[in-house]
Amino acid sequence: MSITSQVIFMQELNQQNNKREKVSLQELSFDERQRLVGAFVWLVEQDKKQNPALYQRKSEKNDRHSMSANT
């Protein structure tokens, strides 16, 4: 699924949400749920590119701090 179709889906869903207050995931079709999940996967991937330190394991962070302190 392309990123463009995911963005369009999110826009369509947002427009539908503006018309009604609550949306149940059970009301969405399987394809709509898959597209919604795909959009969130894309958002997390973009966030990882912008904030890679937030996605490092604690042991990796500790190793890097101890390496810089030893030099």
Quick overview of this protein structure:
With 71 residues, the chain is mainly α. 72% of the residues lie in helices and 0% in strands.
Number of helices: 3
Helix percent band:
over 70%
Query: Quick one: biggest sheet?
Result: none
Mean pLDDT: 79
Beta-sheet strand percentage?
A: under 5%
What is the count of structural domains?
Answer: 1
**What oligomerization state is this entry in?**
single chain
User: Could you tell me the number of beta strands?
Assistant: 0
Taking all Cα atoms into account, the compactness measure Rg is: 19 Å
Please give a structural write-up:
With 71 residues, the chain is mainly α. It has one domain (3-70). 72% of the residues lie in helices and 0% in strands. The protein has three helices and no strands. The chain has helices spanning 3-19, 30-50, 58-70. Helix 1 crosses helix 2 (30-50). It is elongated. The termini are far apart.
Topology:
Elements: H1 3-19, H2 30-50, H3 58-70
Helix pairs in contact: 1-2
Quickly list its features.
71 residues; elongated; single chain; 72% helix; mainly alpha
